[in-house]
Design a protein that fits this description.
single chain; 4 domains; 709 residues; alpha+beta; 6-stranded mixed beta barrel; 6-stranded mixed beta sheet
């Protein structure tokens, strides 16, 4: 966008007139496109609320005014409602300045100029009431079959798949969100178990009172009311105290959260969220209070009073508290093991050799508008002037341009043939990653040369066509042979354009860090007519200065041309694993909370056992038992429960590991090393938690304890 302010590169979308009305009822200002405005040559535009407020200062009279996009005038016919965006996610892993589409234009297709077999638009549809997605899929397949029969040469492999818009938007983050929901449920269960264990301990002192109420004719509801109210009050008070913590945590998590989770930026703790949390607190209170009440209601008053007179918990109550502690340890194992798996995945991804040396490498995106740069020579001259000025800047080690860039979702794929394979007439070639680059690109990116040379300034349109390929492609085309000097074709097999292989480089991961490197090829930019989108700079300068340098350099060549966004390659690599990193941080927090809660559970149980067995301990010590033997007697109960919980947790984590399978890299969903380390950490903390009350109980003098009894 050009105008009075600095040129700004924006993302926009061409749509049919009926798309926006299908997604939202009415615009904020003006009107939607009419069918008449879909004709070729139309110059109307609808602005997003964000662009309208930011660039035009919420001008209420914007409708009817003319703005300039790619130096061409467009009449504004409407502004979308606040918060509307389509599509929600862009096909890139780069840290874009915004996910918000800035404008929409009429599609304006001239069908007479369209070619069969070259689809260049997505289709959005609303199903009729009562029509299932499977029915729509069947109709799409039928339509594809008709097109295959009518145009067999271009539509032989034509197919279509119907997806819900929600599924299409969230499918990349379904697994992380499901894992996060499961972890949240587990930590909630652990907290409930911890509170229930605490109430059971506190309820022991009230058991005789409840038994007396029952003996005097109190109804079940009257007797159960007190522990139920106690549980509800405790849980609701905890949720009330947790609300400000939740609000502060939300802000912190949104700061850490990756940008490619749809609508995450709009997440907030509103009234429905508070209402849900309140309902959940009530349910938890009823659950833990009900457990406590059942321990009295299912026994006779005489049995309860007898246990109270002996100052014992009773076998059922002891078993229940022990079961709760076992469940706490098991849940802690699950959460800590999951965090450990993601930590190993994160470390494996960060240590993966991607084939590039990322230090001090920055890239910027600038797209030259066809209205001003319709000829290849014009685009070539523009980028030549940009590179000349960048290379002459002090501190810039290298500068180059390219048609593609790794890890941003903008990398072409082509079919490649060797002369030997093309000779048999049946080989359609090998799918490879294709990138047209200027001289200096491979050096700037730190690509490792194995044989031959890189692309140089001498590789021009007037010289023989050459190519630099990676080791994977060399092995696929010429196994056991020397690929240097061999001929290769990246164009139409029926009209081959042969290039001589002049260099071999190490394999590179262009699509994703967790996907094996595909075969790749680099060709000199001057020997193609491809559109350049990326400017690459290698400099030790900080990112703010690099951003200013690129924008000023581009503007000095063309004052109406902007740079859409600029990012360092290390930051881009971090963005590609941002979802895993975010999930790891959350699971690590949940794991730490589970460790603390389960440790408190063991500590509380052993403390309660030690207090209730004080008379027995005193008698044993009076009869000659050593402090060590008495301590082992008490600690053994905590260790036994810990071992049972760890065993159950390991089995459960092996079953639940499938939820994380799609997020893991370089580690299986059940990893023995991670499980053993988790068991060791829990074992040490739980043993320490059990030793503290056991040690205190052995320091009490037998006479003092018996006198107290």
């Amino acid at each position: 966008m050009t105008g009075s302010d600095e040129p700004e590169s924006l993302y926009g979308l061409r749509v049919t007139a009926n798309l926006l009305p299908m997604l939202v009822k009415r615009p904020q200002l003006g009107n939607w496109f009419s069918s008449e405005r879909e004709r070729p040559g139309n110059t109307h535009v609808i602005l997003s609320d964000d662009l309208w407020r930011r660039r035009f200062h919420s001008d209420p009279g914007i409708v009817g005014k003319t703005i300039h996009l790619d130096s061409d005038g467009y009449e504004v016919v409407g502004v979308t409602p606040k918060g509307f965006n389509f599509p929600l996610r862009l096909a890139t892993t780069a840290q874009l300045p915004t996910d918000q589409m800035a404008f929409w234009m009429p599609l304006s297709i001239d069908l007479s100029k369209e070619q069969h077999g070259a689809p260049n638009a997505g289709v959005i549809a609303r199903l009729k009431p009562g029509v299932a997605l499977s029915e729509a899929q069947a109709q799409l397949q039928n339509a594809c079959g008709i097109l295959q029969r009518e145009y067999p040469e271009t539509n032989q492999d034509l197919g279509a798949r119907a997806l819900s818009l929600r599924q299409q938007t969230t499918r990349e983050v379904n697994a992380p969100l499901l894992a996060l929901q499961t972890a949240t449920a587990l930590i909630l269960l652990l907290a409930c178990s911890n509170i229930a264990s605490l109430l059971l301990a506190k309820g022991q002192s009230r058991a005789s009172e409840l038994a007396v109420r029952m003996a005097l004719g109190g109804s079940v509801s009257q007797v159960a009311r007190l522990p139920m109210l106690q549980g509800i009050l405790l849980c609701c008070l905890g949720s009330l105290l947790g609300l400000p913590v939740a609000i502060a945590s939300m802000r912190f998590l949104l700061h850490l959260a990756p940008v490619d989770v749809p609508r995450l930026a709009n997440a907030r703790i509103d009234f429905p969220a508070v209402l849900f949390a309140t309902a959940l607190a009530l349910l938890c209170g009823i659950f833990v209070g009900g457990l406590n009440a059942l321990q009295v209601l299912k026994r006779s008053p005489l049995e309860v009073l007898s246990d109270s007179s002996r100052n014992t918990m009773g076998r059922p109550r002891t078993r229940l508290r022990g079961s709760l502690v076992v469940s706490q340890v098991a849940l802690a194992v699950i959460l800590m093991a999951a965090a450990g798996l993601l930590l190993r995945t994160f470390v494996n991804l960060r240590s993966t050799d991607i084939g590039y040396r990322a230090n001090y490498v920055y890239f910027g995106v600038t797209v030259l508008p066809p209205s001003r740069y319709s000829q290849f020579e014009q685009r070539q001259l523009f980028f030549k002037q940009v590179l000349d000025r960048l290379r002459s800047t002090p501190g810039v080690e290298a500068a180059a341009v390219s048609t593609g860039f790794p890890l941003v979702g903008q990398y072409d794929s082509v079919k490649v043939q060797s002369r030997q394979r093309a000779g048999n007439g049946h080989d359609l070639g090998i799918d490879v990653d294709f990138n047209a680059v200027s001289a200096g690109y491979l050096e700037a990116m730190g690509v490792r040369s194995l044989h031959g040379r890189f692309v140089t300034e001498t590789d021009t349109a007037a010289t023989p066509k050459v190519a630099v390929i990676d080791e994977n492609l060399a092995r696929a085309l010429w196994p056991g042979e020397n690929p240097l000097g061999q001929l290769i074709n990246t164009d139409d097999p029926t009209k081959p354009v042969w290039r001589q292989v002049v260099g071999i480089v190490a394999p590179m991961r262009n699509k994703s860090l967790d996907l094996a490197a595909r075969p790749g090829i680099f060709v000199p930019l001057d020997q193609t007519t491809k559109y350049v989108q990326f400017i690459v700079v290698k400099t030790p300068t900080n990112s703010r200065e690099v951003s200013r340098l690129l924008k000023d350099t581009v503007a000095s060549v063309d004052s109406n041309q902007g740079v859409f966004f600029i990012q360092s390659l290390p930051d881009l690599i971090a963005d590609t694993i941002a979802v895993r990193h975010f999930l790891f941080v959350l699971l690590a927090f949940f794991g730490a909370a589970a460790l603390v809660l389960s440790t408190l559970g063991i500590y509380g149980l052993v403390s309660f056992i030690a207090a209730n067995r004080a008379r027995e301990v005193s008698i044993r010590m009076a009869l000659g038992a050593t402090r060590g033997s008495v301590g082992r007697l008490i600690v053994s109960q905590g260790i036994r429960l810990t071992l049972l919980g760890e065993g159950a947790g390991v089995l459960a984590s092996a079953a639940l590991g499938r939820l994380l399978a799609s997020l893991l890299y370089g580690v299986r969903s059940f990893d023995a090393e991670t499980a053993l380390l988790t068991i060791a950490i829990l074992g040490i903390t739980k043993t320490t938690a059990a030793l503290i009350p056991a040690y205190r109980s052995t320091r009490v003098q037998p006479v003092t304890a018996l006198r107290t009894e």
